[in-house]
Design goal:
single chain; alpha+beta; Ribosomal Protein S5, domain 2; Alpha-Beta Plaits; 7-stranded mixed sheet; 4-stranded antiparallel sheet; 11 strands; 24% strand
């Protein structure tokens, strides 16, 4: 055994999709996140014993809680008769498009991993946290889990280890969250229905350009590629003032701007932190014109991942 009886981990917020990579691309957002404190119990089960930081109630039943379900996946590694108690301190608003459900799952598995006699590899932690994510969204997608776990911009595959993509240090996100809840399940329901083949071709081209731009540190390639022809048109009507907010980001110099994850947050990628700060101010003004107060975050795209903090 490690000798530890408890560990606390922090997992950052994240945005999924990044406009071009639906369910397979996401990146961490510095400055906001969830904390999970995990302790051993001698019951051989998982218990969610406390949940703080939200006005709304979340389920404490482990199979319905993202942290609880993720920890259930780690029980075979805990040892005979051993289980986990977890306390969650939420720092990410529900239904914000900032990966709150994934962050809780990631924080829980990273904390539990610090207690295990033999630490688990990234692939196992990623799979467990994805299973946890499915408790909230109904699908075990990894585009928030991967970046919250590893940090930075991450390709989140359906099988195997997530892959961190190198990005230039100057690349920053300006992220604006309007103060209303858009549930992930409702946001995903908007995507039902047929798509045209040419849309997939255009989206694949955009993804390829963005990845090439990241590897080469080429802002012109990022500007050419950072667009969404598949998901954004169907989700935009769910976000009041979206078109005006997106236009404000682009007019402020964003390389591209779109919906963060399932929304309602809107993001832009910028060539510096200062440009991102100016962009978020313009985006907030556009949301205000639509009658929505908002909060803003500026972060490097290459933000840090989850870590044990106590």
């Amino acid at each position: 055994m490690t000798g530890r009886t408890a560990a606390t981990a922090f997992a950052p917020a994240s945005i999924g999709n990044c406009a071009v990579g639906f369910d397979v691309l996401g990146h961490a957002v510095q400055g906001h996140g969830d904390r999970a404190t995990v302790r051993w119990n001698d019951l051989g089960t998982v218990r969610v014993v406390a949940l703080r930081g939200l006005d709304l109630e979340l389920p404490l039943a482990p199979e319905r809680n993202t942290a609880g379900r993720a920890l259930q996946a780690l029980l075979p590694h805990a040892g005979r008769g051993r289980g986990f108690d977890v306390e969650l301190d939420k720092g990410i608003a529900l239904g914000s498009g900032m990966g709150g459900s994934a962050a809780s799952a990631v924080a829980a598995v990273v904390a539990a991993n610090a207690l295990l006699p033999v630490p688990l590899d990234t692939t196992t932690l990623y799979a467990a946290a994805r299973l946890g994510e499915s408790a909230a969204s109904g699908a075990a997608h990894g585009d928030n889990v991967g970046p919250s776990l590893l940090g930075g911009l991450v390709i989140a595959p359906d099988d195997g280890e997530p892959v961190r993509v190198p990005v230039p240090a100057w690349l920053h996100i300006g992220l604006v969250r309007p103060h209303f809840v858009l549930e992930t399940r409702r946001s995903r329901a908007a995507l039902a229905g047929p798509y045209e083949l040419h849309q997939f071709v255009a989206q694949s081209e955009a993804l390829a350009l963005v990845l090439a731009g990241c590897f080469r540190g080429d802002a012109a390639l990022l500007r050419r590629g950072l667009r969404d022809v598949l998901v954004e048109p169907r989700r935009a009507p769910l976000i009041p003032g979206f078109a005006q907010v997106q236009r404000a980001a682009l007019d402020a110099g964003a390389l591209g701007a779109s919906i963060a994850g399932g929304g309602p947050s809107v993001f832009g990628w910028f060539e510096s932190a200062a440009a991102a700060a100016a962009g978020t101010a313009a985006m907030q003004a556009a949301f205000a014109a639509a009658g929505l107060p908002s909060s803003a975050v500026v972060s490097p795209v290459d933000g840090p991942g989850a870590e044990v903090v106590a």
